[in-house]
Write a structure and sequence with these properties.
The protein is an alpha+beta fold. Helices cover about 35% and strands about 20% of the residues. The chain contains 12 helices and 13 strands. The protein has helices spanning about 10, 25-40, 50, 55-80, 80-85, 110-125, 130, 215-225, 225-255, 255-280, 345-360, 400-420, and strands at about 90-95, 100-105, 140, 155-160, 165-175, 205-210, 210, 285-295, 310-320, 330, 375, 440-445, 450-455. A hairpin with a 5-residue loop joins β9 and β10 (about 330). The chain is globular and about 65 Å long.
């Protein structure tokens, strides 16, 4: 007999009328003020827990990371969709009450920043008051207009409570087989506008009491081509978050709530210090620029609308400035305009991709939201592929990762030059390949309609090194 799911006692108990000293929005502002005043996240000028008990501090970091990996393993198996169960194209994360990522699972690590910003957006938009945050609530977003990257990536989060207080968030994302865009599949390159991008989940509460609303499933079955797989992914996301919640309670009961919450904040500040230290020791102050172009040769091809019958190349510039305090300024000035295909991306999603690329070469110890605090990313030009909606609200984002991956690969070269100026030669990554995947759809041998994609191409180009290539270097930039 299958064991009934054990509902964690403390993380589900919610005392009606409980009033926090500060609202989450107020706490977010207090965190920003503390960082501005001290230069340390959460005002942590001293990492007290690390200094007092470094062994336990390190052990709990690995326990929390493994907790996320357990969620990933559970969620991908429950999903049963090939993309999750076989490809592992998903991610789970643990966040502070105000949304900062503490640690994440294996999987598509490029989404860590997206999940963090989604939680922060729920707080900034006043969801704490309406509809409120309760134990068992399920929130989702896949809408690029509200910080998503493209509709097939369903971002989800659940608030975690202990003794009536919201203490953490569990988050996750999975890439579904079909999101109902104008062409079958989960890429949507040919989408001419956002109206063809597929089913939008726009910053919504989609369930409560650990269950999805019935109309959530009805909408998915009404507007996607592979609804069983899409709902399987949804149940997998939920199963992973419930696994995190259950195991987190065990960790809290063993080490104490105060230690876990203190250490969670310290891990983020620790990661910031590590990244800043790497910049100080391996780069030089100054400005460095790099640009490359992405081509779309679509003239005379089978397109959907006349405006797509074009050849175009769009500029993906990066200007990086290392300041004397090891903070990093990034600019996309010169980025070209939107394109009539699904290759436009929101600034929020682009910043998340940058966070992932940064972890490959600078802040790869304790990967979380910490290194972002040392950045200043200038808002890309309005109406560009990197900030489309200011001037072109209809811009499509079906395969928004395509320009983002190529742009992020600039980071390898600009930091590689800076490393070499200090005497470090790191031949660690070439430019990203521009052919990401191929899609297919149709009826399989069992009479079942399927959509699918081959992601082998996504591992081309970027992992090549001076001493290793081929299958030995077949890793994907998203992970």
């Amino acid at each position: 007999m299958a064991r009934a799911h054990r509902r964690p006692r403390h993380l589900l108990d919610h005392e009606e009328g409980f009033v926090m000293a500060l609202s989450l929005r107020e706490q977010t502002q207090a965190n920003a003020d503390a960082f501005k005043k001290t230069g340390s996240l959460f005002g942590l000028e001293t990492l007290t827990r690390k200094e007092e008990d470094p062994g336990t501090y390190e052990a709990v970091w690995h326990i929390l990371s493994n907790l996320c990996n357990a969620a990933w393993a559970t969620g991908c198996k429950v999903s049963s969709s090939p993309i999750a169960a076989e490809g592992g194209d998903a991610l789970w994360g643990l966040h502070t009450a105000t949304g900062e990522a503490i640690c994440i699972s294996r999987g598509i690590s490029a989404h860590a920043g997206l999940l963090s910003d989604m939680i922060k957006n729920f707080i900034a938009l006043g969801y704490e008051d309406n509809p409120g945050f309760k134990p068992g609530d399920i929130f989702e977003n896949n809408d690029p207009h509200y910080g998503g990257i493209h509709s097939p990536d369903f971002d989800m989060c659940m608030p975690l409570f202990y003794d009536g207080k919201l203490i953490f968030w569990a988050s996750c994302v999975s890439h579904v087989a079909d999101a109902g865009s104008v062409t079958p599949g989960s890429i949507g390159f040919l989408n001419p506008d956002c109206y063809s991008d597929g089913l939008p989940i726009s910053m919504e509460r989609v369930g409560e009491g650990d269950r999805f609303y019935p109309w959530y499933e009805m909408r998915i079955r009404s507007r996607t081509r592979t609804p069983d797989f899409v709902m399987g992914d949804a149940r997998g996301r939920l199963a992973g978050c419930l696994t995190m919640r259950e195991r987190l309670e065990e960790v809290i009961e063993k080490y104490g709530l105060d230690f876990i919450m203190d250490a969670g904040n310290e891990y983020i500040e620790d990661s910031r210090r590590y990244a800043v230290g790497r910049v100080k020791t391996q780069t030089v102050p100054g400005r460095i620029r790099k640009s490359q172009f992405k081509d779309l040769a679509m003239k005379g091809k089978r397109v959907l609308l006349a405006k797509q019958d074009i050849d175009c190349a769009f500029n993906l510039p990066m200007e990086l400035t290392i300041n004397a305090d090891a903070s990093v300024d990034l600019s996309l000035q010169g980025a070209s305009g939107t394109v009539p295909f699904g290759e436009n991306i929101s600034p929020t999603a682009l910043k998340s991709g940058l966070m992932m690329g940064y972890s490959h070469i600078v802040g790869f110890d304790m990967f979380n939201s910490g290194p972002i605090a040392a950045w200043n990313v200038e808002m890309p030009p309005g109406g560009s592929w990197a900030n489309p909606f200011e001037l072109n609200y209809e811009a499509a984002s079906g395969v928004a990762w395509a320009p983002a991956v190529t742009w992020v690969s600039n980071l390898y070269e600009v930091f590689g030059r800076l490393f070499q100026m200090r005497g470090f030669v790191e031949e660690m990554a070439a430019g990203a390949g521009t052919i990401m995947t191929a899609e297919f759809s149709g009826i399989n041998q069992n009479g079942m309609y399927l959509t699918g994609l081959t992601l082998e191409q996504a591992s081309q180009g970027s992992p090549a090194r001076g001493y290793s290539d081929g299958e030995n270097s077949a890793w994907c930039i998203y992970t």
